[in-house]
Specification:
Layout: E1 9-13, H1 26-42, H2 52-55, H3 61-70, E2 76-79, E3 82-83, E4 92-93, H4 95-104, E5 109-113, H5 121-132, E6 138-142, E7 144-147, E8 150-153, H6 162-171, E9 176-180, H7 198-204, E10 209-213, H8 220-229, E11 233-236, H9 248-261, E12 267-268, H10 278-286, H11 292-298, H12 305-319, H13 324-355
Parallel strand pairs: 1-2, 2-5, 5-6, 6-9, 9-10, 10-11, 11-12
Antiparallel strand pairs: 3-4, 7-8
Length: 357
């Protein structure tokens, strides 16, 4: 179990629609199959591995809500869409459903918006709507788009494509932006998922905090050198953390490098639900320590309880401008209120049952 007063703020969950009819051709189907391979390969022994027909379907808002909040120790969540509307009819994780997921628990779930910067004015208008009408607190982007059967990459340091959406975000009061890096899925050209463009983004927009999702794997060394040089760059271990059981040494080497280069204040947790059920990775992380030979041989800092608390929730709270202690007190109060409500519901059901006996 996670420590009693540790806050778990899940940095990413998607309301996926893996239905074959939602994919716009072979590229979309390949994208889906790669995500299923992650689920099947990294889910540890003893945990449920869904057959393809049960995984590659349309997930509902209720299912994601139950998986994250009902079946794990998660306290807060970022509901995150995917804007891959050139691969999938609805983008794969529709922003409207993510906004609905956030609306279920507005005090616990944060909506991150997402648009396609290559759409120009249309993207800027959608950013206004996502913030103004649905309360988006951050944005997540994807650097490879598809059309006419081939990829169209764009860069985070492109003054014509990227900078207008960053400027719009600042105009809307948003100073937190994430980007999918590394983890090339489907027929993506791998070079377009590298992180070389993050220097220009970070340097030109010092008031925006940028989160490099998946720590840019397999380009972890490049990412570490960037994290140490730019104070507004952060790394999300979403998907990376799921190596922790099946490949613990690999996870330890990645985490050790991050702790050595950028420290415990720049690393953020994410579950990637429903690709993986969150609880097994949370349990494994809370009990994880770096192998002593890595600590002694490379000078990596040990993963302390303080570092775990920051990574699991406190760092993301700060990026969202939330006070850690005030949030802890609020969550504790909400937990007590929910427990009392469940107790009242149980009592009413019990009385009703007895009266009808």
């Amino acid at each position: 179990m996670i420590g009693n007063d540790a806050i778990v703020f899940d940095g990413v969950a998607h309301v996926f629609n893996f239905e074959k009819k939602n994919a716009l051709g072979p590229a979309g189907e390949m994208f889906n199959n790669h995500l299923y391979a992650f689920h099947a390969t990294l889910t540890p022994e003893g945990q449920t591995v869904l057959p393809p027909e049960e995984f590659l379907r349309q997930w509902t808002v209720d299912e994601i809500h139950e998986m994250v909040y009902g079946q794990s120790d998660t306290d807060m969540l970022c509901a995150m869409p995917l804007p891959l509307t050139d691969l999938f009819k609805d983008g794969l994780s529709p922003w409207e459903e993510c906004a609905e997921l956030a609306g279920r628990d507005p005090d616990r779930t944060v909506f991150w918006g997402s648009v396609n910067p290559l759409e120009g004015r249309r993207a800027l208008d959608l950013m206004e709507r996502q913030v103004g009408e649905f309360g988006a607190k951050a944005f997540k982007f994807y650097n490879v788009r598809y059309d006419y059967g081939r990829p169209f990459p764009w860069r985070m340091d492109d003054p014509q494509v990227a900078f207008p959406v960053f400027e719009k975000a600042q105009e809307l009061g948003v100073n937190l932006i994430g980007v999918h890096k590394g983890v090339p899925l489907g027929p993506q050209p791998i070079e377009a998922t590298q992180t070389w463009d993050m220097d220009g983004a970070a340097a030109n927009f010092p008031d925006i905090n940028f989160v490099i999702f998946h720590v840019g794997l397999p380009f972890i060394d490049e990412v570490c050198w960037q994290l140490i040089r730019h104070p507004n760059l952060y790394a999300s271990i979403a998907a990376t953390i799921n190596f922790i059981v099946r490949a613990p040494r690999q996870f330890a080497e990645v985490l050790g490098k991050l702790l050595f280069w950028c420290g415990e204040d720049k690393i953020i947790y994410g579950s990637e639900a429903p690709i993986w059920q969150p609880q097994w990775a949370l349990d494994a992380f809370w009990n994880f320590e770096l192998p002593q030979d890595l600590v002694e041989g490379y000078g990596y800092p040990q993963l302390t309880e303080q570092a775990k608390r920051k990574i699991l929730g406190e760092n993301l709270l700060r990026l969202h401008g939330m006070d850690v202690e005030a949030t802890r007190a609020r969550l504790r109060g909400e937990f007590i209120a929910r427990a009392q409500e469940r107790r009242r519901d149980f009592t009413v059901d019990w009385v009703h049952l007895k009266l009808n006996d």
